[in-house]
TrEMBL record:
<protein>
    <submittedName>
        <fullName>NUDIX domain-containing protein</fullName>
    </submittedName>
</protein>
<keyword id="KW-0460">Magnesium</keyword>
<dbReference type="GO" id="GO:0005829">
    <property type="term" value="C:cytosol"/>
</dbReference>
<keyword id="KW-0378">Hydrolase</keyword>
<dbReference type="GO" id="GO:0006742">
    <property type="term" value="P:NADP+ catabolic process"/>
</dbReference>
<feature type="domain" description="Nudix hydrolase">
    <location>
        <begin position="39"/>
        <end position="170"/>
    </location>
</feature>
<dbReference type="InterPro" id="IPR050241">
    <property type="entry name" value="NAD-cap_RNA_hydrolase_NudC"/>
</dbReference>
<dbReference type="InterPro" id="IPR000086">
    <property type="entry name" value="NUDIX_hydrolase_dom"/>
</dbReference>
<dbReference type="InterPro" id="IPR015797">
    <property type="entry name" value="NUDIX_hydrolase-like_dom_sf"/>
</dbReference>
<dbReference type="GO" id="GO:0035529">
    <property type="term" value="F:NADH pyrophosphatase activity"/>
</dbReference>
<keyword id="KW-0479">Metal-binding</keyword>
<dbReference type="GO" id="GO:0019677">
    <property type="term" value="P:NAD+ catabolic process"/>
</dbReference>
<dbReference type="Pfam" id="PF00293">
    <property type="entry name" value="NUDIX"/>
</dbReference>
<dbReference type="GO" id="GO:0046872">
    <property type="term" value="F:metal ion binding"/>
</dbReference>
<dbReference type="InterPro" id="IPR020476">
    <property type="entry name" value="Nudix_hydrolase"/>
</dbReference>
Length: 177
């Protein structure tokens, strides 16, 4: 179920939402005129390189896609830029600081969580680890691995957006395969 399908009553006045409008965006209340847009949330993630050209992969601890490969990242908080949120998520998940953070690509994703299918815009960056030896499996990370770009199996990646970003990264860095 998507967020627009959950709101059956106006969150301002409680007026029932006409059945014909459930699931559509924006929510427009016929009772009080309130309008609410259901926009995607934003996530940031980073392909982190170390000096030998390998990138850091994480094994996801939790669903969705528990046990699959990902890269450190997560949902941005209110008031954060994409870069700030990505840096924070990397610190929380693997304990690394980044430099030379550069945008790679974005792609839409659907993220299932507790019976709701959240639309997400995933923003992918590349960066260099300040001190790669400090990398550790922390929040929601089962394990970490360093791999060459050519040794990252597409079929083991957690999300379609991650596969798209990996292809874009490989195209931009053909010398690192």
């Amino acid at each position: 179920m998507r967020p627009a399908e959950i709101f059956r009553f106006c969150p301002r006045c409680g007026h029932p939402r006409p059945d014909a409008n459930v699931g559509h965006t924006p929510l427009q209340c016929p009772g009080c005129g309130f309008t609410f847009f259901f926009n995607p949330t934003v996530a940031g993630a980073a392909f982190i390189f170390r000096s030998d050209g390998q990138i850091l992969l994480i094994r996801r601890e939790k669903d969705p896609a528990a046990g699959k490969f990902g890269v450190p990242g997560g949902f941005l908080d209110f008031g954060e830029s994409a870069e700030e949120g990505t840096r924070r998520e990397v610190r929380e998940e693997v304990g690394l600081e980044l430099h030379n953070l550069r945008f790679v690509t974005s792609f839409p994703n659907l993220y299932p969580y507790r019976e709701v299918l959240y639309p997400v815009v995933d923003l992918y960056f590349s960066a260099e680890a300040v001190d790669p030896e400090r990398a550790a499996a922390l929040d929601a990370v089962r394990s970490i691995e360093w791999r060459r770009l050519g040794d990252v199996p597409d079929e083991e990646m957690a999300f379609d957006s991650l596969r798209v970003a990996l292809r874009a990264l490989r195209a931009a860095n053909p010398d690192l395969r």
